[in-house]
Every structure is written in C-alpha cells, then in structure tokens.
Amino acid sequence: MRRKITAFFGIAAPLAAMLIAAGYGSSANGSAYSKSSNDSAAVASAHHATGATQVRVASSRLGRIVVDGKGHTLYLFEKDKNRRSACYGPCATYWPPLLTRGKPVARAGAKQSLLGTTRRANGSQQVTYGGHPLYRFALDRKPGQTSGEGLQDFGGGWDAVSPAGKKVESDG
Description:
Order of helices and strands: HHEEEHEEEEEEEE
Shape: globular
Oligomer: single chain
Structural class: alpha+beta
Number of helices: 3
Low-confidence stretches: 1-9, 14-49
Largest sheet: 4 strands, antiparallel
Distance between the termini: 17 Å
Strand content: 15-25%
C-alpha cells in the first residue's frame, strides 16, 4: 500500500503542478464522452450568473456516470461518512472537491432530487449526489477520462458515481 501511494505521489505531483499551471483548461476534442444537447453557451452563462455548479450524466467506458459541467468524471470517496468529507490537505490536492456557491443544478440525465451540499471545514459548500460528497481526480485532465476509478488512496476507495447515486465499480 505504501509503495502504491509513494509511486502515485511521484507521478502525480509533477502532473498536478502542470494542471495548476494550465488552469485546469481542457478541450472537449478527443473526449470519450458523448456530447449532450444541453452543452451550450446559455447553460455555461447560467452557471456564472448564479454561482451554481452543474452536474450531468455522460456515457463513458464505465457506462453512464455523473460528471461536472465541463464533462469531468465525478467520484465518491468510500471513507466519507454521514454526507461529510474525509478528504482534506494532500487528499484534496489530488481529489479536488466539487464546490458550489449556490444550489447545484442537475442537467442532462442527473436527478435534482439526488443533488445537495455539505459544508467543508473551511466553510465552503461541497456538492453531494445521492448523499456522497463529490470529487474530481487531478490526473483526469480532460472530459472522458476515468483514471481515478478503483484507486485505493488516502485510506479508502474511489469510484465514479452512477446516475442513481451509487458507486460504479470497474472490473479491473
């Protein structure tokens, strides 16, 4: 386990630095996700106007999964309990929480009734789906990537989230 985490940090640290330098910018070109008809400038401007984070569903190699407004895979952390995040410090560097400044909005297959928020230690609001706090994975650099699926890091497992709010488990 220690070897796996050490190797992860050795690879992830330089890549995380590149992501930060690039400002998390990405292109939808080459995406493994199916584009939704709800991807429009109007939807994007609504996000900026309200501060609300959007969550939608996309098709991936894992099947249909929950993604953020930019199409990045969203994950749950098995160590989280009672709708509370257990991912802080270095964990949150590699697994950035999905934050919102307003009520999160369901789009394209996501269920509004499963969306919610939980307050983090610093007072920010993290988006939840099916009661699970949501995270991105720093090494998923563009829409369609699911490289965080099935990892065992920071004391628990990480899995993509299904439209029903349950974890998606890959076969390997």
